[in-house]
Give the backbone structure.
Amino acid sequence: KLDEATLERLAKICAGACRPIDDKRGTIEFRRKVAGVLAKRVATTAYERAGGK
């Protein structure tokens, strides 16, 4: 089952695993946050497409 706790763990792992650069378009912290948000969105979409609601 895909619950909020699982999604939060996924986001934290993805944010920690990425090694973003720091430039004028975004800080390292911002890019790590975005990586976690995108991971949650991808997991949710994949779960829904696989038949889980």
In short: The chain has two helices and no strands. The longest helix spans residues 28-49. The two ends are 10 Å apart (CA to CA).
